[in-house]
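Minimal example, chain plus S-adenosylmethionine.
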Amino acid sequence: MEQGTTLENSPSPENIMKTATGFWPSKVLLSAVEFELFTKLAGRSLTAEELGTELGLHERAWYDFFDTLVALKFLDREGDGPEGKYRNAADTDLFLDKNKPSYIGGMPEMLNRRLFGFWNDLEDALMTGKAQNETKGGGESVFGEIYSDPERLETFLEAMTGFQAGNFMMLGEKFDFSRYKTVSDIGGALALLSRVIAGRHEHLTFTSFDLPPVAPHARNRVDAAGLTDRIKIVEGDFFKDELPPADVITMGMILHDWNLEDKKMLIRKAYDALPEGGAFIAVEHLIDDARRENIFGLLMSLNMLIEFGEAFDFSGADFRGWCSEVGFKEFDVLHLAGPAFAAVAYK
Ligand SMILES: C[S@@+](CC[C@H](N)C(=O)[O-])C[C@H]1O[C@@H](n2cnc3c(N)ncnc32)[C@H](O)[C@@H]1O
């Protein structure tokens, strides 16, 4: 051992091997979601044989698969061996049982069916800078692909809901909405941002703007929430149309979908749709300015390379620079949930 080196600070292979095998636990969880394991097990307690038989799994796989899920804390097990009974852990029961409104399996389903395979071509993406999804084999763009199939559209929109619900709740807490009356949420999907913030701030009214195929789904959610009077669903295309004017313009995971030119076009349109003193808010997995820490933001940016090629995630400093170019005067960054932030620019 070199002088001054102790066992505690000498290099360890742990991080290398943990990351190298990172796809193992990921694929175990994604397979469980694909088999609807947590939905079938909800409210029940089954032996390995009962559960394996119900899911149609080979006997060889029963104990390794279920016990790995126990060790990963996605299942609980009472007892050991053939008598041991498996049941959902609290989080998988709440979020991965399809029969509960809190289901967020849409994103894991999409990760399993689309992105797991596409990420296998990361090396190609790194060498060519090109997308590795359906478009690689001559398919349509992500949104074209998703929106051509009503069932896939519903799954995609639900997946976004799982991702953003906590972030929008935090935005409602942390941003000072008391100074404003109207909000336009651009690319609003199922109008989740509007629904969540409407519940927290009763003086606000909202416009949720998205492509025409999304509108009926959004309207259903808004009607079901009893918010029809306060949330207007507007159909439009932000490449062709101006944005609906409001005191606050929000974009949740919109800017990261596009290249620099399109990002700047969207920022310019947001500026034009705001009054003096209005605020533009981007909810994103902002990369830290030094690009060293927010692993999720950096991986999300690689995911944008896989999905779109030119699209990329960005830091608060990048956002500030682009927004200054069009005339925004003041800036703020608010931490939301986990790796998500709200980047704010004031006109
Ligand atoms: C990544 S999702 C984000 C959804 C939502 N804002 C959130 O934070 O969960 C991107 C959204 O942009 C919408 N979108 C894509 N292209 C659009 C366009 N040209 N005009 C309007 N909306 C568009 C999609 O329909 C989708 O709802």
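The domain at 14-95 is CATH 1.10.10.10 (Arc Repressor Mutant, subunit A). The longest strand covers residues 205-210.
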